[in-house]
Amino acid sequence: MLDVRLFRNMRFSAASGAVTVAFFTLFGFIFLITLYFQFVRGYGPLSTGVRLLPVALSVGVGSVAGTQLAVRFGTKLIVTLGLVAMAGFYVWAAATASATLGYGIIAVQMVLYGLGMGLTSAPATESIMGAVSRRQAGVGSAVNDSTRLLGGTLGVAVIGSVYASLYGSRLAARLPGGLPHGVSAIAQQSLGAAYAVAGRVPGAAGRAVHDAATNAFLHGLSAGCVVAGGVAAAGAVLAVLFLPAQPVSPPAVSRTETLPAKVPARD
Q1: What is the mean pLDDT of residues 16-33?
Q2: Under a CB-based contact definition with an 8 Å cutoff, are residues 84 and 53 in contact?
Q3: Which pTM was predicted?
Q4: In terms of Cα–Cα distance, which of 238, 166, 219, 220 is closest to 22?
């Protein structure tokens, strides 16, 4: 069903890689920021969704602008700028992660990320579809969707694993002494479980469990952001090296090839 020779075309394969990287970071971002808003900041599901709107709106703006800018300045430049913007967001988020960071700063960070996502995904998608013939449009669309699913799945798996491992180790080192082993094990399963344990432990010990869980979560969050930012930066380097700026122009057709054959005169 898939002609693998399509991947010889760097406009197809490099753009597929850029989309994979973009959705790797997107799903990792959604995974982490949802936990942060709902548990650390205490927002409900609806409030969390409303506070994520800057990302959605800026992705739309970046997608529209990205396709237009790619026509003028080339796909390579715009996709690279988008990946650099996403990497910059993650570095900024890792450096400022805290339980009391103002939402205004978070919103600006999300706008930066959303613009980067739009600048990357829309021109890269156009590059993938522009590299295949009309007859192969279905295959190109399927590959484009597959890269998104692959990137998103890997993003949650990798970034989630990094966060979970660092969260568990940091929390185990900072839990107050005297807690039953079973209670400590439950707290290390997830941030929500740790907060539930903190609510059941009376007095200063409960507050200590809560603070330790928050600190461990922010530690894992920062590390996950560094990983995602590194992947986005690597994607930017690959885009610079392999993604063509513009589609290859078809070979010029000579005038003699365009003229109709001379019809022989009848007697």
Answers
A1: 93
A2: no
A3: 0.87
A4: 238
Report yes or no: 122 and 65 within 8 Å, Cβ to Cβ.
no
Q: Is 261 exposed, middle or buried (0-12, 13-18, 19+ CB in 10 A)?
A: exposed
CA distances from 136 to 86, 123, 147 (A): 31, 19, 17
By the 8 A CB rule, do 16 and 100 touch? no
CA gap 18, 79 in Å, rounded? 8
At 112-162, the pLDDT tens digits run 999 999 999 999 999 999 888 888 888 889 999 999 999 999 999 999 999
How far, in Å, CA of 160 to CA of 28, rounded?
Answer: 7
Cβ atoms of 94 and 147 within 8 Å: the answer is no
39-70, pLDDT tens digit by residue?
A: 999 999 999 999 999 999 999 999 999 999 99
Strand locations in the chain (E): none
How far apart are alpha carbons 215 and 235 in whole angstroms? 30
